[in-house]
Specification:
Blueprint lengths: L1 H13 L6 E7 L5 E7 L2 E7 L4 E10 L2 E10 L2 E8 L5 E9 L4 E12 L12 H6 L2
Antiparallel strand pairs: 1-2, 1-8, 2-3, 3-4, 4-5, 5-6, 6-7, 7-8
């Protein structure tokens, strides 16, 4: 009986796939888009638009403000994206890269929530190309 109660408590704590929220995001002025699935404190998704990557991360607090942090590995570096919580459908994004020894901010800007699937090939340059040339 105790095992059943413990198992039920574990499932209640972890939640179910039905609780996941999907957000489609476009980086303003760039062709990068994201589809992010947020389930409690975990985030999984993809980057698209121009280029592609599989993303994974978490819901986090930075300076007492809730946001989403996701990372990908590409071209021998880890790229980390921090999205602030959107207000009125828009927010800020900060991009960091690491080579395993050092980490630095390589870009920032704004984003907006896209209703429906994130459009592929939005207007503007690839934000990734900006700092991969460095």
């Amino acid at each position: 009986m105790i095992r059943k109660i413990a198992l039920a408590a574990l499932f209640a704590l972890c939640g179910s796939a039905a609780e996941a929220d999907t957000f489609n995001v476009a980086i303003d002025g760039h062709c990068n888009t994201f589809t992010l699935n947020v389930q409690r404190f975990l985030v999984a998704g993809t980057r698209g638009g121009c280029g592609s990557a599989i993303e994974g991360g978490t819901v986090a607090k930075v300076d007492r403000k809730r946001g989403v942090v996701i990372s990908e590995t590409t071209n021998n570096m880890v790229v980390t994206w921090y999205f602030t919580t959107p207000e009125a459908g828009a927010g800020k994004v900060f991009v960091f890269s690491s080579d395993g020894e050092t980490s630095s901010e390589v870009g920032s800007g704004t984003y907006h929530i896209v209703h429906g699937p994130a459009a592929g090939g939005a207007s503007g340059p690839d934000i990734m190309a900006t700092f991969q040339k460095r």
